[in-house]
Amino acid sequence: MSVVELCRxxxxxxxxxxxxxxxxxxxxxxxxxxxxFSQARDDPEIAAIxxxxxxxxxxxxxxITEFDKPPKSPHLSEVIALIETIQKPVVAAIHGTAxxxxxxxxxxCHFRVAAPGTRVxxxxxxxxxxxxxxGTQRLPRLIGIEKALPMILSGxxxxxxxxxxxxxIDSILDGExxxxxxxxxxKVLREKRPLRRVRDxxxxxxxxxxxxxxxxxxxxxxxxxxxxxxxxxAAIEAVRWSLEVPFEEAERRVRSAFQELRQGEQSKAQxxxxxxxxxxxxxxxxxxxxxxxxIARAGVIGAGTMGGGIAMCFANAGIPVTLIxxxxxxxxxxxxxxxxxxxxxxxxxxxxxxxxxxRLGRIAGSTEFERLADADIVVEAVFEEMExxxxxxxxxDRVTKPDAVLATNTSxxxxxxxxxxxxxxxxxxxxxxxxxxxxxxxxxxxxxKETAPDVLATAIAVGxxxxxxxxxxGVCHGFVGxxxxxxxxxxxxxxxxxxxxxxxxxxxxxxxxxxMGPFAMxxxxxxxxxxxxxxxxxLKSEIADRLCEAGRFGQKTGKGFYLYEAGSRTPRPDPEVExxxxxxxxxxxxARRSIDRREILERLLYPMINEGARILEEGVAARPGDIDIxxxxxxxxxxxxxxxxxxxDQVGLAAIRDRLAEIAARAKDAxxxxxxxxxxxxxxxxxxxxxxxxxxxxx
Length: 699
Ligand code: T1G
Ligand code: NAD
Prior knowledge:
The chain is an alpha/beta fold and 699 residues long. Helix 2 (76-85) runs parallel beside helix 3 (101-108) and helix 28 crosses helix 29 (676-683). The chain is globular, with a radius of gyration of 28 Å. The structure holds (2S,3S)-3-hydroxy-2-methylbutanoyl-COA and nicotinamide-adenine-dinucleotide (NAD). The site of nicotinamide-adenine-dinucleotide has 25 residues, from helix 13 and helix 16.
């Protein structure tokens, strides 16, 4: 069957795209569109044309898998140019999502109608690209730069109602959609509505053209958190051309800017992340055929740093949740923190006050476990102490219903041992959130030896429902993220003793693209959390332990590795810390030396990658891509570097193996010896990607 069909509703032609799963604009679709629209244009019996799609969504953009290959004509802009020359009304009938090239085609049509619940947007920036087929020129003309530039720079879609308000669509149609769209086309004919090409609209650009400072203001306001990324600046430039040069000239410039980005390292990494995120959602033997359990009510144990944020996740997703604490005082403190967080979001305009009330209304507090009798899922977030967690799970086993899912938010502890403290270890698993839990998108779903497939499928489904990116991992100390973080932390502390200072190490990793370095991050999370954990497990971290013994827990005490002025989160180097570190070096008889940024980076990243290789060997992570998604969504790894395993392939595994061998010899630390998998792939001149190549090629 052809991916583009031309059918007739009397005088109305319906161009139907049918390329599951998301009607991506692969070459064959572009050829089909060109033929169908030419035919409809040249058929005198056809008075108007409706463009629509089969399946769950309108066109979700260009086919991203084609970006690794040389572009083939007809290009999307040729298809759109043809549509714009047609002297008959062309109506884009949008349902599901119109994204990227899909929205650009719609902007090339004379009219846009949408089904309720539709979303439209230009997400190219999330792939390290800019809209390449007119989105940067037509959208500002249609809705103005104030609305268009933030949409292009965030890449986030807007809903049908908002799109209608902006003027991006002409109408929202109820009822059976395609017939309603055909009827809309007939109405256009009956009312002899003028055929307006979006490219010819100028009235929304004129005011900004006269006030270039206004443009800069909008651009500045909409390009936060773009440090290190190339595409945002290119997008701002492209939209600026809509003010400065004729349409054709702007299109020509956009095409070359687009090709440059498409061939760039950043977009390659971000396209890899797009597919890795989707692969991570597929768990062998689970997600394909196993039905998740129904989740109507949730419970959270412990209303501390994590418990409060986790309860907000459920409430935000519309799921009523009961929060359990040991006493009224800690419960009150937890509920106050939740209310304060919501009020701050309302103040920032990120949430409507009435919606805040609805969410607060879904959170109930109690000190009685029995209140969890009707919970379908419970997440435990009490202190990181094994005996306490076993006691809590024993209580949960007693009070919750037989088909409840019991999850622990432990950072390091053995999920199987926690499961064994119940009579139903098959219902137990880890759901490891990241702080702040209501913000960080990553969710490590820790699969225990006895965790049942539908319990796992339920945790993954709940993870998506509360807006998280769930990645399934196996049981080991620190699972995937924290285990690799520890490998980085050990080497970071070693470099402190050898001559570096916290600001040197943090500076190197921030320059690489992380939002903050290990020492500033430690101060933010609280150095006492790690200290308590290390003491409980008999582990040592010389410098951090001494800081904690001196009561320096980080931001919460105004000093940790850095100093913090009252009310400020800006880390300032502290001579006292430098003195403490120099004394530690002396105690170890280490002559301090200057360590350059390259060495710092290699010694922070390569041990992590090495630990990642061990994690793959042990099957704790199913794919290198899973590790990359964990680091991007949980630990601030810059998305435009694709994640530690992808980055390793760019550097070359042989180089990393050889450098690790040097670092290991110098540190006399066998843990730094290249992992067998790294050794093997390097000697076979392969990368980590070769471990999953077939899956992606299929896409
Ligand atoms: N190209 C190729 N494959 C795609 C694809 C695309 N654009 N979009 C989705 N897929 C695959 C995906 O890998 C998965 O495959 C399956 O479809 C279902 O996707 C010229 C340059 C539309 C909101 O960035 O945001 O246009 O894993 O699991 O959760 O200016 O897919 O089953 O094998 O995500 O329901 C711009 C990308 C392209 C939109 C649906 N467009 N897609 O979400 O399903 S650049 C995008 C999405 C562009 C122009 C430029 C989402 C979705 P598999 P899924 P979903
Ligand atoms: P926290 O100290 O802030 O909060 C723990 C809460 O549990 C306290 O309010 C305490 O009163 C309550 N509690 C203790 N025993 C209880 C019981 N029997 N019943 C009900 N409530 C009880 O700790 P946190 O930072 O929120 O950590 C909680 C868990 O989450 C730990 O396992 C930790 O390892 C894990 N975790 C923490 C972070 C983080 O960054 N803080 C990140 C991921 C996971």
